[in-house]
Amino acid sequence: MIRSPNIWDSPDVYEVENLASDRAGLIDLALDAIHPLDGSVLLDVGCGAGFHLPRFAARGAQVVGLEPHMPLVERARARLASAADGGPTASVIAGDAERMPLRDSSVDVAHARWAYFFGAGCEPGLSELAKVLRPGGTAFIVDNDVTRSTFGAWFSRAYPAYDPAGVQRFWDRQGFTTDHLTIEWTFDTREDLDAVARIELPPAVADAVLATHDTLTVDYAVALRWKRF
């Protein structure tokens, strides 16, 4: 299990971040173009509080959320209970990416959005994906592209040791295709933007970038990595 301080420590603020992220739905459209979700069994690895689960179910997928942190498992289950409408089934199970409690060849689409699969070191999770995906199934990894965009510049300033070229070489070796998207954070209030920036960036960097950013939108580069198994 790898701790995720942004969502583990500040789940309510992370919910605001999810609501602000990609309101145009560009990531979902890209997923669906590569592997249509309608009729698929979809595994959301590191589903957190389950933000994406009802939306994937509404797109016609049978959805399973996998999350290691029990307070978030409980939040995700509560979300599904409140969203239940008689549509496609969705559920949440507690478990780690390194040891997925699922049958082999039981999943059509695996989705991980800013969760676990950050480059070298995630090989145990990739081995698990290879087990649980059916032949012809697709794994999607939604990752940051720190080489461009406003948020990419913020991230690079905050974490100068991060090696984007090395990360890209890792995914190339693993046989993943990388598509480059640009989404936006779109916030309703300045307070929301400030709160989200402060759970994603160290305090000094957050102070500096927020002092010079005067809109409620932040352009955000994404590396969509995918592989058909």
From TrEMBL:
UniProt-listed Gene3D superfamilies: Vaccinia Virus protein VP39
The Methyltransferase type domain, residue ranges: 43-141
Keyword set, alphabetical order: Methyltransferase, Transferase
Molecular function per GO: methyltransferase activity
Protein's UniProt keywords contain Methyltransferase: yes
Any one Gene Ontology BP term: methylation
Alphabetized InterPro entries for the sequence: Methyltransf_11, Methyltransf_Superfamily, SAM-dependent_MTases_sf
One Pfam family matching this protein: Methyltransf_11
The name this protein goes by in its record: Class I SAM-dependent methyltransferase
The organism of origin for this protein: Ornithinibacter aureus
